[in-house]
Amino acid sequence: GSVVASYPYDDSPTHRLTGVYSKSADDEVFKYLAKAYASHHPIMRTGKPNCPGEEGETFPDGITNGAQWYDVEGGMQDYNYVWANCFEITLELSCCKYPPTSELPKEWENNRESLLTFIEKV
Description:
GO terms for molecular function: metallocarboxypeptidase activity; zinc ion binding. By secondary structure, this protein is α+β, with helices and mostly antiparallel strands.
């Protein structure tokens, strides 16, 4: 896990594991939506999720192009964009994939304003 808003494309023509910016035709729209979410999240907006084992990982403005972060061939985000014209971003909300129940109220507070802002973009 991490704390970042990722946008298409997740796959790249070279299929290098990481570091390839794979720009979609709607790149500016995706960046706008990702920033709308990230800018209201107290951790995501810093661009420094500080996840255990990945303490040096950074994401400017709390967002990343999927393939630049790591290449995923055949991902749902890209599939839906290409074949169904759905504009999706992927939200990584926690360093822990399954946070304990006791942490859920904090996670809600971290994401509430971001979710409302994202919904307003519709």
